[in-house]
Design goal:
Layout lengths: L10 H20 L6 H10 L7 E6 L4 E6 L2 E7 L5 E4 L1
Antiparallel strand pairs: 1-2, 2-3, 3-4
């Protein structure tokens, strides 16, 4: 039985790998995906406005989205408590 000795990675390769991992984790933490379309539509309907289904969602800032429904355009934002609120 023959064992092969694998070389250890160089410090530069380790540093590059760690930096790449950090960048990926930071980008994931910064990304603020919009809530699911069904949740956005329900939030709009709960606010007393019509929305059977969401057609398009665009980011309008941090924790804020411009939502186009079949019945109109709305703004949905997440408050400091994490709740969604809709307005025209």
């Amino acid at each position: 039985m023959t064992r092969k000795i694998q070389p250890m990675p160089s410090p530069i390769k380790v540093a590059v790998g760690m930096a790449a991992t950090g960048i990926l984790l930071a980008a994931n933490a910064v990304a603020n995906p919009a809530p699911p379309h069904g949740e956005l539509a329900a939030t709009i309907r709960t606010a007393g406005m019509p929305c059977a289904h969401v057609i398009e969602v665009q980011s309008a800032g941090e924790d804020r989205w411009s939502v186009r429904c079949n019945a109109g355009d709305y703004t949905v934002e997440r408050d400091s408590e994490g709740k969604l609120k809709a307005s025209r």
